[in-house]
Amino acid sequence: MSILPAVSTGPLRLVPVQRLAQGGRWRTEAMRSYRMPLLLWFTRGQGRITVAGLTRGYGAHNAVFVPGGTMHGFDVSGKVFGTAIFFNQSDGLDLPAEPCHLRVRDARHQNELTSLLEALQREIDADRPLRDRAIACHAGLLSVWIARQRADYEDRPGETAARDLVRRYTRAIEEQLYTGQSVGDYAESLGVTPTHLSRVCNQTCGRPASELLADRLTFEARRLLLDTALPVKRVAEILGYGSAAYFTRAFHNRTGQTPTEFRERRQP
Prior knowledge:
- The protein is an alpha+beta fold.
- The chain contains eleven helices and eight strands.
- The chain has helices at 17-20, 26-29, 107-125, 131-153, 161-175, 183-190, 194-205, 209-227, 232-238, 244-255, 259-265; strands at residues 12-16, 38-44, 47-51, 54-58, 62-66, 72-74, 81-87, 100-103.
- The longest helix has 23 residues, at 131-153.
């Protein structure tokens, strides 16, 4: 479920953070998930990042690992630089099962990752024999770097009932994104009231449960409108809206454009 710049396929993809934001701030800020694990390495600037319903600040030399299928979004200003590393093939890699935020303070460890990414980019750009094998080996080294830094630099928030509930809520949205469920439906399945669910979402990420759901659905609508040629009516059906008219109103309220206008203005 991604909107990514066109790049060659392979075990890993490296994309500059600034390129991820091309075409609008919603491309990084809106809640979304990717099928593959993702490592965000910020080298300059600062902002806010929300992962699995928990919002925190990030700065230079922060590495944020996001497992595949995990809802997330982050601010990107013109002063933020870094690299997004997509693990297209993660089988056999010992990557974390949960999100982790690393605040890497030692310059040696910062340079170690920078050198590793530079070597990876050279392999990705080169057309040499055993290219994918070499990239896969570098991916293994990258997974080792993550594991080592977790021991020293992981900024692990204390576990609370609120954080656990919001994490389960965001996971449920990802698993049932196309079912048309409301906040009330999700709250019932989680064993809480909609009011309580919204309260804890506000505590952990500063927005109510309805905003998280609407933001995620709007990103997915944009993805389908840009990445496919599906009719607007079909997009509405896939996302669980009762009618194309209702979907159009909801989309317009959040973006200021109808789905058709959004699609047409971004066609080459």
